[in-house]
Amino acid sequence: MTRSVRSLLVVLFDLSGLVFAWVGGLLLRFKFDIPPNFIPSLWWGLAILWPLHALACRQARLYRGIWLFASLPDLKRVLRAVALSTAAMLLFSLWYRQYLQTIPRSLLVLYPLLLLLYMGGGRLAYRMWKEHRLYGGLAASGKPVVIIGAGDGAAMLVRGLERSAEWRVVGLVDDDPNKWGHELSGHRVLGGLECLAEVLAAVKATDVILAIPSASGEAFQRATDLAVAAGAHVFTVPGLDDVMSGRVAVSWIRPVEVEDLLGREAVSIDAPLIASVLAGKTVLITGAGGSIGSELCRQVARFGPARLVLFEQSELALYALEQWFVQHMPGVVLVALAGDVKDAARVEEVFAEWRPQVVLHAAAFKQVPLMEIRNAWQAVRNNALGTLQVAECAVRSGVERFVLISTDTAANPTNVIRASKRLAEMVCESLHGLGGSTRFAMVRFGNVLGSTGSVIPKFQDQIARGGPVTVTHPDIRRCFMSIPEAAQLVLQAAAMGQGGEIFVLEMGEPVRIVDLARRMIQLGDYPEGQIRIEFTGLRPGEKLCEELVDDAAPLRTTAHPKVRIASARTVGGDLLPELRIWLDQRIQTDAQVRATLIRWVPEYRPAS
Q: How large a percentage of the chain has pLDDT more than 70?
């Protein structure tokens, strides 16, 4: 059926509603025996009210809605049309009484009621019939699933699952006793989370969906633990904002991941402040293709920069990032440049041609064990010399803000990577101490979830291969945050910086890596003991627990609860000339690198 034919049928249906309400009202008034003297009133009413009713329906914008999805906004439009049509009927009654005959007063009540019943009920009946025709056969199909939660998120999820051939809701559980025994969209709340195992056995289900998007990390973790202990496959839905805005789709249901269990709350940033720093500016991001660098590019693009200059050594990473912007944010003015921060001529060329106003320096080596042995000199040159060259170009070019991303911790370093990052911070502190218009800021944070080379992708690969999962030490602990959270807080710190600060991001409580591994094995639905965990011993330069601040160094609070400022020893401006001489040397052995780093970075204590 064509669209024009469907539209015509809808209009004819609404016009027939006039006949139903007008004639039906007279029939009800006279108990289905209309006196002959009222027959002219019937015909006069149909003739005069028909065009007025059609005009009322059009004025109420009644034909914007799709009947299959008839809902509250459609009902409001129907009410508006009924009110306008009733007003027209009232005017007709007054006119008709003056010149011809009185209209029964009961019609003032019967007419709008019958009209609303016909127009609103017809739309509802069509939606119910159509949904039954499209999805009714799915009611008994799909895998049985139990929903954890009986709130707003669960209500929207249940409605979505009614149209899914993959799932069939057989019950809900919720810790609120007031909901037990009640129904949500026809599905009963069978009890609390503690009886989840009994519920799953009773309804013969092995799948569970967590519909508690507003729950705390601790509550989410408890629900997951109970579901895993009951032998269920555990899935979850998107966050609260997506659920409450109605954007949830069944296809968005995904297995629970270890990131969901770490309890990181959504970060809040001062968007107007950040926009004042980035909007309309040329922003250069070094290491743009890395985990943090690429997310910084995406976050910066939200604030309307004049252009984004992407500087990246890896051709593949640069191409992938450029294509992402072409597909997802084509309106962003992008300049994709291949280059190495150690290449002084290339760095000078980039600054001279594009004149960036904000520089986010994320280019760095970060793999501790790999760079500790036989690669120490390359780590120092990339992290320290690269920072020195980019930072000096920024000063000469009059860059407004320079932000060093200390992706790995630089406090109390025990390995070359950490010491080289501390040395990079010292370069920025020294340049800040020389004066000038460029504001320097350094941002420290710990591990980010899912970054290249991090522990979670490694564990996922080991679990997929059947194990064993390798952990260096039973007591090793790390703090984690998500990549978007880290990038947003970097921008927050950058916008707050007045010059020379070392910002420290709040990382939460440290997590035992072995516990992380066990959770990932459990979430992979592997029987207990099938995948072994092996302890391999601490790697070169690795600590049991990382620090984000120096020993006994107090932290100063800022206006943002997740951003603080670390105190560090003063770095003089005379550092740079001698440091440049050392970094320009062609080659240094690992032992020479460590010995010299101890002189430059007194807090560096190489691990034995």
A: 82
